[in-house]
Amino acid sequence: MKEIVVISGKGGTGKTSITASFTYLGGKDVVVADCDVDAADMHLLLQPNFAKSKDFYSSEIAKIDQNKCIKCGKCADVCRFNAIPIINEQYTINSLNCEGCGYCSHVCPVDAITMELQNDGKWFISNTRFDNILVHAKLGIGSDNSGKLVAKVKNEAKKIAKEKNKNYIIIDGSPGVGCPVISSISGADFVVLVTEPTVSGLHDLERVYKLVKKFNINAGCIINKADLNLQISKEIQEFLKKEDIVFIANLPYDETFTKAMTAGQTIVEYGENNLKNIIIESWDKIKELVEN
Length: 292
Known about the structure:
Elements: E1 2-7, H1 15-26, E2 30-34, H2 43-46, E3 52-64, H3 74-78, E4 86-87, E5 90-91, H4 103-107, E6 113-127, E7 133-139, H5 146-163, E8 168-172, H6 179-185, E9 190-195, H7 199-214, E10 219-224, H8 230-242, E11 246-251, H9 256-262, H10 274-291
Parallel strand pairs: 1-8, 1-9, 2-7, 2-8, 9-10, 10-11
Antiparallel strand pairs: 3-6, 4-5, 6-7
Helix pairs in contact: 5-6
C-alpha cells in the first residue's frame, strides 16, 4: 500500500480538482482521504453518501457552574483570551475565545470551573460515485486542532486500505505549510506538488517544498495553467531541477476545467479535452514513481 499526498503552497492552484481526477482514474484500487478539513470540498466532485459519521472530540473548553460561582472575578483576571465576559451579572465562557488552557479552573477558589471535552467537528466514511471509499471531515466553526483531525482522517483511511487490501491511498492535503499540512504528509511515500506560474505560486512552492524536504519524501510537481506565464513556468522548472523534484506535467489553461467543475465532474470524465490525456499520463507516471 502506497500513500500519495497532493498539496500546494497556496489555495486555488487546482489541487483538489487534480486529486479528484486521480481518484476517478484509481477507481476501486484507491482509498481517498480529504485532509483539507478546514475547507473540505472533495465531496462536491465525488458526491459521497456520508454512510458513516462520528463526532470528533479533541480540545477542552471551560464550563462554569453558576450554582458554585461566587463571582470573585479571579478567572476573568487571569484569562489572556478575554474568554470570560460578564453577561447578566454572571461570569460566562465565550466558546470561540476559550483556548482550553485550564488556567481559570486552577485559580477558582470554589472549584466552580471544570474543563470538558469539546466537539471539534465530524468525520465521515463514505462511498463515492466512483465506487471507492472516501474518508473526510468537517472542522467545527472556530475549532482548533485541525492537525489532529487530519491525523484521524489519515489513520482511518490507512485502516480501511489495509483491511480491504487496496494499493493506494490518495490524500488531498491542505494548502500552505501549517499543522494540517505537516499531519497530511507525515508518513507519505510520495508528494505531488501542484503550483501555478505566478510570483506567489513560485514563492509558495519553494516554501512548501522546504517542509517536504525536512520529511525526506520524494516529490513531483504539476504546473497548472503553465502557459499563462511562460517565464515563471521556466523558473519553476529550473527550481524543480535544482531541488531534484520530478517534473510531472504542464497543464495548459483550458476553460473546460471550469466547465467540468460546474457540471460536478472531473476533467478526465468530461468528454474529450486537451487536459484529459495529460492527467492520465500524470497518474500513470506517479504510480510508476511510487512503485520504483
